Amino acid sequence: MIENQLPPLKSALFIDFDNIYLGLRQLDEYAAEVFASKPSTWLKWLENGMPGFETAGGGTTPPQPQRDILIRRSYLNPRDFHRYRPYFIRSAFSVVDCPSLTSQGKNSADIYMVMDIIDTLEHKTHFDEFIILSGDSDFTPVLLRLRAHGRKTTILAAGPASPAYIAACDLVISEDVFIEHALAASKDRSQRERIRPVAVTATPELLDAMADKLYAEASANGEILATQLPRLLRDFPEFRRDTNWLGYFSLRALSTSLTRRRPDLQIAEGDPWRVIVSVPKRARSRPKVSGKQAPANNEDSMRRRILERVKQLIAEADEPILMAKAAHDIINTIGQQVLESHWLGAGTFKNLLQSYDNLPFEIATTPSPGFLLDPRRHELPSEEQSKAEKEQDPELTAFSERVSQITGIPNLSPHQYAIFFTALAEHLSTHSYNLTTTSKAVRDLCIERGESISRAAVSFVLKGITYAKHRFNKRDTPLRLARVYRNSVLTRCEDAELELTAKEKKLVDKWILDGLRKGK
Questions:
Q1: What single-letter DSSP state applies at residue 65?
Q2: Which is nearest to 175 in space by CA: 26, 353, 61?
Q3: CB 3.0 to 4.6 Å from 152: which of 104, 129, 291, 309, for a disulfide?
């Protein structure tokens, strides 16, 4: 029995079919067809609490409440999209025909939707949530009215939506999340595509040694960020760039294979993704001695030795000690039985330390990757800026922050944009474009180059290039892609009514293009 489970939301759903279908088709034609011909698929996703939903920053949100979608209305142009009408009728939608009223194809869907939404406010059923599937910023006043009446609002904008429209709602479903999780289009597509065979060049012994190395490192504080993995793997002379990640072709594929060799490791999603410790239920709570179960007093003795050694390390240190460094010292001092026992059953070094009472030192988990210190003598290091950020022009820094705040454009450094466009061109040279798979692949390629660029930022740039009417192909160069995106940035500023001077437009060039120009 699940305790404290929230009751389902009573929701009303309104869809500007033409707007969403055409917006999705810009990004992924196959996804647009799934949306139009299988509404029951994404309806179920909405009703089940949107599993897999991510925030704008890329992290997963707390579980969303389930929904009872009591009103379902779809507004479409019958001349252009009549063939999709039966699919929605079979999924219990009321379909409102909105024929074109002008020679440019403009219909009255938005007016019908506004009137129906306002009428629904007075419905005998008190609807908790209004879901609007449209990127039309004309709905902003409606969202504000719904908020004034204390109703939750959720939108899906398949296209570049205005910041004001996004700010007016409670929850935004991004197109890439909708395509990947609600439509499951990328999953269907991947089943049809031929998977490249893996020609592994590493021996099982080498892979086991690498997996053991990852566990030894991850067991310090429970995880290893993806950006830290290449540094660890370079300790093995067989690991070189020209081996294509030992035949796995990507850091992610190699890391997945390594975690499968140890049941106490697994991949955790996030931006960046990471390798985490997951202690099996059958893990030993006490170390082995000569192949036999160690007595409890031996475990107690080891606990005392570990604590005394950590206290000694901190007393001798002039500055906070990296948790991983302290963990390696414990392993070298006390022996491999520390790892074999999964840190006396605690799973990680950090968990073991936190199990002691009245510690005479402090455990700091931030800034990453975690420190041990005596607060009377030590001061935690501040979050260090990257070299690229330190070298950036202060004028450009202030400008990019202002533009990012107003428009939502990712505030990456010129160096990070150069890494991004180089990775994107490399991926496109061997793979066809798809928003879901390309965003994941480019995110991972950036990680392999030491830059953690969130998947949300990657998707934003990809969509910006798409909305600029560019069609990705294998002949795309990094500079060509950057120039298309630069134009998209200028358009985004215009849409947000951010008027740029001639000098500021040159700053946009410096921001988006200079990292590539200097890299030549």
A1: P
A2: 26
A3: 129
Strand 223-225, strand 274-277: pairing: antiparallel
Cα atoms in the Cβ-side hemisphere of radius 13 Å centred on 95: 21
Phi then psi dihedrals of residue 68, to 5 deg:
-110, 105
Distance CA 315, CA 360 (A): 10
CA dihedral over 298, 304, 306, 312, signed as positive or negative: negative
- Residue 340 and residue 287 in contact, taking contact as beta carbons nearer than 8 Å: yes
**Domains of the chain: which residue ranges?**
9-192, 204-277, 288-373, 387-518
Closest among 481, 484, 490, 456 to 468, alpha carbons compared? 484
- Quote the pLDDT of residue 395: 93
pLDDT digits (tens, 9 = 90+) for 31-76: 999 999 999 999 999 999 998 776 544 444 556 889 999 999 999 9
User: Would you say residue 294 has pLDDT above 60?
Assistant: no
Q: Residue 460 corresponds to which tokens in the numbers above?
A: 């934003």
Residues found in the chain = 520
DSSP E strand boundaries for 140-222: 152-156, 171-173
Average pLDDT of the chain is: 85
Can you tell me the distance from the alpha carbon of 340 to that of 355, in angstroms, rounded to the nearest whole number? Answer: 19
Please tell me the distance from the alpha carbon of residue 306 to that of residue 330, in angstroms, as a whole number: 7
Q: Which amino acid is at 450?
A: G
Q: Give CA–CA dist 362/341, Å, rounded.
A: 24
Cα distance between residue 147 and residue 106, in whole Å = 28
pLDDT digits (tens, 9 = 90+) for 217-260: 888 888 888 888 888 888 888 887 667 788 888 888 899 999 99
SS3 at position 109: helix
- The answer to whether the CB of 413 falls within 8 A of the CB of 389 is yes
CA dihedral 405, 406, 407, 410 (to 10 degrees): -10
Q: Which residue has the tokens 């010292």?
A: 329
Write out pLDDT tens, residues 277-286. 886 554 444 4
Which CATH number is 387-518's, of 1.10.10.10, 3.40.50.300, 1.20.120.1790, 1.20.1250.20? Answer: 1.20.120.1790
Tokens for 429, please give them.
């040279």
Phi, psi of 198 (to 5 degrees): -95, 125
pLDDT for the residue numbered 286: 43
120's tokens? 């629904």
The pLDDT of 309-330, averaged and rounded, is 91
The CATH number fitting domain 9-192, selected from 3.40.30.10, 3.40.50.1010, 3.40.50.2000, 2.40.50.140 = 3.40.50.1010
Cα–Cα distance between 511 and 389 in angstroms, integer? 12
Q: Reduce the DSSP state of residue 371 to 3 states and report it.
A: strand
pLDDT at 192: 43
Count of helix runs (H) and strand runs (E) in the chain: 24, 14
